[in-house]
Amino acid sequence: MSTLEEHYWSCSRAPQLEREHSSTSSAANWLASKGEEMMSIITSVLGSAYSSLHRHRTVNLIRRGLVLFAVGVILALVLNLLQIQRNVTLFPEEVMTTLFSSAWWIPPCCGTGAAVVGLLYPCLDSHLGEPHKFKREWASVMRCIAVFVGINHASVKLDIDNSVQLSLTLAALSLGLWWTFDRSRSGFGLGVTTAFLATVFTQLLVYNGVYQYTSPDFLYVRSWLPCIFFSGGVTVGNIGRQLAMAGVEKPHSD
Amino acid sequence: MTCYRNSNVPRRLLGDCPVLPNGRELTPPSATMLREQLREKISAAFYRHGLLCATYPVPIILFTSVSILTCCYPLLRLPLPGTGPVEFTTSVRDYSVPSREPQGDLGERPDWYQGPPVAYIQQVLVKAAVVPWDNSLVPVDVFRSPLGRVFSLLDEIRNHVHTDSSGVRSLESLCLQVADLLPGLRRMQSVLPEHGCLLVSPANYWQNQRELFDTDPNLLKTVQKHEPKGLHTSATLRDLLFGVPGKLTGVSHYNRKRVVTYTISIVLSSYDASFLGSLRTRLKQLHPSTNCTGLMNERMVHVHFKEEIGVAELIPLVTTYIILFAYIYFSTRKIDMVKSKWGLALAAVVTVLSSLLMSVGLCTLFGLTPTLNGGEIFPYLVVVIGVENVLVLTQSVVSTPVDLEVKLRIAQGLSNESWSIMKNMATELCIILIGYFTLVPAIQEFCLFAVVGLVSDFFLQMFFFTTVLSIDIRRMELVDLHGHMRTEDSLPATKPSPLRTRSAPPPPRPLPHTITLQTPARNLRPPKRLRLVYFLARTRLAQRIIMVSTVIWIGILVYTDPAGVRTYLAAQVSEQSPLGDDGGGGLTPHLEVAPVFRGGDPTSTLTDRLAPDPTPLPDNQPQGPPDSKAEPPPHSPPAVPQITWGAEDEEGWRRLSFRHWPSLFSYYNITLAKRYISILPVIPVAIHLSPQEAIEGRHPQDTQHPMPPIPKVAADLQPDLTLYKVAALGLAAGVLLVLLLLCLYRLLCPRNYGQNGGRRRRGDRPCDGYGYWPPVSEISPLLLRGHSMDIECLASDGMLLASCCLAGQIRVWDAQTGDCLTVIPKHGRRRSSSMDCWVNFSSEGPDPSLSGDSLSEDEGHQVRHRTTPSRPPLFKDQPDLTPLIETNFASTPTCPNAARPTRDGFHYGDLVADAYMAHKPPSPSNFYSPSSSSPPSTAPPHSRPSFGDAFDVTPPDLGGGSVWALELRGNLIAAGRSNGKLEVRLWDTTDGRLRCCSEGVSASGITALAFLNNRIVAARLNGSLDFFSVDVNKPLALLQYRGTPCRAGVPMSPCYSSEDAISCQLTRSVQCAHQKPITVLRAAAGRVITGSHDHTVRVYRLEDSCCLFTLQGHSGGITAVYIDETMVLASGGQDGAICLWDVLTGNRVSHVYGHRGDVTSLVCTPLCIISSGLDDLICVWDRSTGIKLYSIQQEAGCGSSLGLISDSLLVTGGLGCVSFWDLNYGDLIQTVYLGPSSDGQGVRQLLVLNNAAIVCDFGSELSLVFVPSVLEKLD
Questions:
Q1: pTM over 0.80
Q2: Which stretches are annotated as coiled coil (chain A) (predicted)?
Q3: What is the DSSP-derived secondary structure letter of residue B867?
Q4: Contact residues on chain B for A166, CB-CB shorter than 8 A
């Protein structure tokens, strides 16, 4: 998760920069990324089917990682789009091409981050010896994802001039997310760590000029970025825990 | 402070409690005290409320619906969501460009009306006609020359220069200069202006060049060329260029009005009133339109366009909705144990949606106008409000005791969850209130909606959902009541006459249990795949979807009008109008005269543009809009086209698609989203052309090839043909649909769907909870009848089947055919007169008083006939008391020399025959063993008479014990009795002989038997273990053991002939194998495993009866043990734990807890271990890791029997049915109902035979279920 959201803030700027010279390779990139996504989905499905036959820990781990990776990629694409559409409202062809051509490396990065964080959460739980038992069900996980998307949506849609106010609002929302769906100390700690590391990583990236933010107000990035990272970490951790639990005990007692 | 803690059920009896019940003084009120009091009060209130809701369901639902509708009523005033533009009209005269700064004083001015518009649109509406119409003219003349006039008009407009005091202005300086077209629009490049002024007119089709127009042989083709194919809802190029809707232009062959309408749209970037005024004057001067005074050229309309929703915006939205639906799905999946799961899920969703609507409605009512995009925030609102509460409510209500009244259940369920519901709601309200104080307007509005939504959701949960739930629970109770009644019907019948106890099997459990067990009997569901199919089949979803899509398809067909149906229909309508005669009359000369007078110069050719003579039609002008074909002016000679102007011409753009202007601007990468344009009043231009001009403007081809299709014929024939075409297409589509439906129906529903439905009543078979009854399975079990009482023991060696009922009778069946091969009555005598061997050792005298109670059975009929009466009516009512009577049998002589052959010593043939003839109650006859012929068999005191046929009369012996354990190998049957006797019988079907040898060692009952190779292991109640070896004294090699029997393979049944003498020798007796009764005994792979109540498992070696290991690890008695040839030992105990052991080393491999209660059954596959427990859970564990793979919650009381047919096919017994499961996925493959009614007994024992048949005891009957179809399905 550490890199799940760190790039799409740049994409609102990046598409405009790259729109001119990327039109030719956009189709190929688009195909490639779609293919990659499809492959990940297929492999995850195959993995789940395979592991239903041979459930070993490693297979289970790989399967979970793949699912988390797919989740990360999809979330990155969607939230990326959420950012882009602020500047581009018309001409869907343009948006599609820019979305899939501008920064192809963002979704895989986000997916990898999501896989790492999502696998780390249950691992940490088991190491700490305090299994997470609070609201362990898929409905709650779905609710968590929806709230996370909502926080992103809010961060995009809210027109607040005062960035401090926005940051505080989003921080409160993120804390509310954690309190509603997690409530574990390890989750909080890991979320904070994720937010910190990801923010530092983003700072480094921006500092080195990989991309930039439209209106940075916190060193080089936006000040509410850690909040988004935190809530993203909690969300992916939630998914990861649920997957880990579902891997052990198939939710089949309906 | 805990004064109410114990008054849990009726919590309404609350009041002040100054002194605690135990007399202690009231503690000073503390925070916890307050909290507790609050909690109790809330709980009491909820209890009362639940009672109320469950008592008056219908009024409350009505009340709720009325309040929902009332609260939603303000929503009617809201504009429909969408991207429709908003208009604002100002006057042209005092128009000034609105300032950018918002001015608060202008109340009616919308907030978007700020700053200059994107563009001003000036339309020049041209109506041209050839007057007077000449019959010599061809249809092309209707529009060719009028269209040609557009070029001169364009020149006029382009070159118009207005000069006044402020300078010289031309169009170039005022118009909107456009740059490049979008790259994706190359095909429009030739049509739309690429640079310069944005000025669109029909002339763009010909690149604004008159020469191209003149040389164009087919104008219509040129126009049609650019039309998009397929469905088009937004503005087409034709609409863009003509500026009026396509059907109003009049550019077609069938233009009856003969007036051509088009516009020249000028897009201006700045507004100059004087220039436009001069242009208007100039155009009017050139083309004076006589009666356009009705046009009020004073209104300027500003159109504001909403933000557009593109694909890019839709993707996140769709994602949000997908997440929302997943959330709702996962939530409602948890609803269980109710009558109608889907009904409740629907109620939950309705609750949430209605609360949202109520929230918006209430907010609107109190003056808050929603500014947020409803579609965007809606999922978040749903997520915030959530459907958790209703689920919690459902689960709480469902988990209340079933035997309570519905009202009380609802009330209790509500009251149990009241505290948590209130707490959650308070928390959410607090969070939302905090959000309200963020002072961000959007968040504030969201929070406001959420708060009102939460409150109304709470209201709906309390009133709507609770009531629906009470109705649902009541429905379920009714179903249960029926089941209850059936059970009770049978019971009172048995009680008055104890003699009937045998006919009706005693209920296995007390009555209340029976009820509760039946309750969830519905929950055994087919897998999701099947459920989906059932759902489709039940709702006829496929049919409906196809129907709807057909309607849509036809609608699209009509709308897009590929075959000109609409034109034809319009023509039909106009012909059927009252003036149709005139129209027809107008056409007739056109049709007939035109060829005649063609080329002739009509007299009226001289009329030129001044021709519009208003005098013939003085009263037509106000009404006859040129485009309303349904109302052509009355009495107007159609030969004279008349150009009239109406109010609708004033704002002709209104009839265009609202996407018209945005799409025009979007071609130049100008977005109108959230901006507005100002549309200036049109400049009307009427052009009248003389026929001479029209003829002059003709293209040479015009007269040639478009002529042959004479308009009338074309108008009649061509649409007719298309109509036929459409009809034929529709018919074909219909036939195809019907065929498709048939195929679908065939596919979805099995062949015997509905055929066997009549046999079973609806209530008899468990339904899937959706009201749809699964089709009758193709597997019909074979019922093996013959036993008079419940079957106690069951044994099989794969090919044969032995069963023993409570009456002590042993029957041997052929597992292939279901034939009863032999019947061994209690004493081991056969009914057959050919029985030559009779060994009976009875240590006690017969009790004549009981002889009358003996039951006869029908054995003459071999099973498998459903028509066979199960027993003769003569003895039907007589109870069998003998198995219930247990006498001590201490005096049984133990014969050490057990190896001696049995000899036939006694013939009872005459006696039996006499008794049979007399057909009277058996006379007490003593059968003492007169000889020492069979000393090996220390005969068990088979006190019961055999129930062979009526002639088989035996004095009952009270000393006999019921059979507790049974084993079968080939034609050897080993039966362990409760009195400690082990009988080994040899039976033969060919000659009907029966040899038996019995042996008894101790008086303790044999609880378990294992028959492996030629050894029999008997476990006894006192914990001792006896090892016997069975020898057959035959010189020839008759023990044809071919290796050890494996689990799935064919067991090597030894074949003994009837001449053989069988000896059963006690080789070793382990007296204190266990401290407590041995409960389970298994033997495989040369090991004997015993499990006992003393929490230990012991492993013995079969050969030398040596105890190898004592496995300790369970904290409860052992209830199940499994061992197979691969030396994997699993044991399950009363503590719910399952242990895996290594038989070679005695180590415990893994130890898992899986059940809340006894583990009742254990089987293993090479991959996994399947366990079932008293908690009705079937758990599947990974064999190597001990990780639980998944668990299947079965219906309650469905028995615990498990069987493995193959490595991936599990069979479990249920209430009157057996279910087949796919082990790989945990899916239910099929459920086979054993009897016509499902309220029968549960399947207690289940054996898997070789031929993929399973046998299970089902009351007094055996059910043989062949499962080839299941196997096929699995493959």
A1: no
A2: none
A3: S
A4: 440
